[in-house]
Amino acid sequence: MATATHLAPQSRPAALPAPAGRAGFGGALRSEFTKIRSVRSTYWTLLALVIVTVGIGTLSCVGAISRGADHGPNFDPTFRSLVGLILGQLIIAVLGALTITSEYATGMIRTSLAVQPRRGTLFAAKAVVFAVVSLITGLVASFASFFIGQAILSSKHLNTSLSQPHVLRAVIGGGLFLAVCGLLSFGLGAVLRHTAAAITASIGLLFVILILSNFLPQTWQVHVNKWIPFNAGSQIWSTVTDPSAHMFAAWTGFGVFTAYAAIAIAAGLILFRRRDA
Questions:
Q1: Contact, 262 vs 229, CB < 8 A?
Q2: Can you tell me the distance from the alpha carbon of 117 to that of 65, in angstroms, rounded to the nearest whole number?
Q3: Is the pLDDT of residue 7 over 50?
Q4: Quick check: pTM over 0.70?
Q5: How far is CA 163 from CA 79, 167, 208, 235, in A?
Q6: Residue 37 pLDDT class (50, 70, 90 cuts)
Q7: Largest Cα–Cα distance of the chain, in whole Å?
Q8: Which of helix, strand or coil describes residue 79?
Q9: Which H, E and C letters describe 125-193, residue by residue?
Q10: Number of C-alpha atoms within 13 angstroms, CB side, residue 98?
Q11: What are the residues whose beta carbons fall under 8 Å from the beta carbon of 136, sequence distance 6 or more?
Q12: CA proximity to 183, closest of 191, 25, 142, 117
């Protein structure tokens, strides 16, 4: 009688876990872009930025032709159409602060760091994504304000065009100005880690200091005014310079303004890498 032979099943070696790859900068960028576009408030804030910037600029140009504003050699039709950037900077500052502080408020920052433990990479990805979004939106708002404003001013032949000296630089500079405003607030948000505190600090630097400087003695204002963040940054979207104001040249002033944002971001990065989430 044949004997059945039972072979013991060979044990298969346990599957080795796939080696975990290092989360790269590209992945961090995609993750941060998904975050910023998945929040509905981002769209509303950016829409408000465009509406306010264009709306204020439009009203300013209407006032220039209806109330007989000074149309002498110091009249700057480009600056007139871009004047809405004064309030637009405050809106982008709010979004810049929220981009970093909202994760601390919800505790989501711990999850982000678990997925991307390299803090420098995570911080840089957040800054780059926000900078791109704010720059694109700022350019849209700036060009829309310019074209609508010049169409209004053309009824009194006060308009200018992009082909005129310094005009294209000023219009592009309006978008750059808004992007740097947002990055300044982003850096302050990383330093303070609290939304209300970051927004308050941003408004103080961008707006309140400008108002308080008017109470300084005239001899002080000559030396102080050009260093105020708004005054330095706004030179990039001006085409007419008043020598008596003693302001920086366009790109020099914008460089000073960018330095403020760079200092805030550098401080935020240092603290982001050293502090617990």
A1: no
A2: 57
A3: no
A4: yes
A5: 15, 7, 35, 19
A6: confident
A7: 120
A8: helix
A9: HHHHHHHHHHHHHHHHHHHHHHHHHHHHHHHHCCCCCCCCCCHHHHHHHHHHHHHHHHHHHHHHHHHHC
A10: 15
A11: 175
A12: 191
Question: Rounded to 10 degrees, what is the CA torsion of 225, 70, 142, 152?
Answer: 170
For residue 265, which of 97, 106, 67, 149 has the smallest C-alpha distance?
97
pLDDT reported for residue 24: 82
113-154 tens-digit pLDDT:
888 889 999 999 999 999 999 999 999 999 999 999 999 999
- What amino acid is encoded at 128 in this protein? V
Residue 69 is predicted with a pLDDT of 55
| The token pair that represents 185 in the structure block | 């607030």
Which amino acid, 80?
R
CA dihedral over 47, 53, 57, 59, signed as positive or negative: positive
pLDDT digits (tens, 9 = 90+) for 246-269: 889 999 999 999 999 999 999 999
